[in-house]
């Protein structure tokens, strides 16, 4: 495709909602081989104490870039939603961080449906690949561009770019990095895809792992686990669902933590001193230093600041111990 006029460009519809999709949409909207004919995103939802109706990050960017139309179907598989998208006569669908199952008619477009997935498929298919990558302590991840099929992240791989990890990533930071990588990968790949220069290769049958949606209870810091695993959990589950310890003084949210060696004859599942004036959770093999915390009803504090405000030393109510 030469990109010299509208007739030379592939009519493309973009489907996305979250922040991972924002750099992708921005790059796609300016691609010389693409005529972006529509954007599909989740409906606006109430946010904050005053429940202000707020569009998705993709919806906000679409307004900023004056991309029309912007569709917000509650259920993409509804017949009227499918008809609305097909009325745009798209040749290609591009997805990133959308969150709904894509109906078969969109998979059968002339150039198919391409999905950007933030993992080294077939590792970490499913809903939460970035937290899963951090939780597992993986040394490397990737962004995968795949042609979608009817399965859950099972489609053949068009392109994949590896990303090395340093072991200190947070979910939010890693998502931002992978979003930038995804935008570049799509930009480089979409022209060759249109011209038939990229083949979609089946995923390996070995090494398949699945993730599931996260739940609030996943954030409980279970003292029967190792200190290293709990520190990864704190990094992996920010901002949602967050991590916490329930105590006799209320819930303590944990935003940053560090691994510390055991101290004396500690009892796993109790709050103890860290190596300074702060506090730590005794674990099965050491201590989890609680570096940045928030007591119930309070503001975010350092561990020592929280200790100075405590009335007595709180008892852990439930740290996973029977």
Keywords:
single chain; about 325 residues; alpha/beta; Rossmann fold; Methionyl-tRNA Fmet Formyltransferase, Chain A, domain 2; seven-stranded mixed beta sheet; seven-stranded antiparallel beta sheet; 8 helices; about 25% helix; about 30% strand
Question: How is the secondary structure organized here?
Answer:
Layout: E1 10-16, H1 22-29, E2 34-40, E3 45-47, E4 52-54, H2 57-64, E5 70-71, H3 79-86, E6 92-96, H4 104-107, E7 113-117, E8 125-126, H5 129-135, E9 140-147, E10 157-164, H6 171-194, E11 210-211, H7 227-236, E12 243-247, E13 250-260, E14 271-273, E15 279-282, E16 287-295, E17 300-302, H8 303-309, E18 316-318
Parallel strand pairs: 1-2, 1-6, 2-5, 6-7, 8-11
Antiparallel strand pairs: 3-4, 7-9, 9-10, 12-13, 12-18, 13-16, 14-15, 15-16, 16-17
Q: What can you see in these coordinates?
A:
The chain has 322 residues and is an alpha/beta fold. The chain has 2 domains: 6-211, 3-Layer(aba) Sandwich (Rossmann fold), CATH 3.40.50.170; 216-318, Formyl transferase, C-terminal domain (Methionyl-tRNA Fmet Formyltransferase, Chain A, domain 2, Roll). The protein has 8 helices and 18 strands. The protein has helices at residues 22-29, 57-64, 79-86, 104-107, 129-135, 171-194, 227-236, 303-309; strands spanning 10-16, 34-40, 45-47, 52-54, 70-71, 92-96, 113-117, 125-126, 140-147, 157-164, 210-211, 243-247, 250-260, 271-273, 279-282, 287-295, 300-302, 316-318. The strands form 4 sheets. A 7-stranded mixed sheet has the order 5-2-1-6-7-9-10, with helices on one face. Strand 3 (45-47) and strand 4 (52-54) form a beta hairpin. The longest helix has 24 residues, at 171-194. The mean pLDDT is 93.
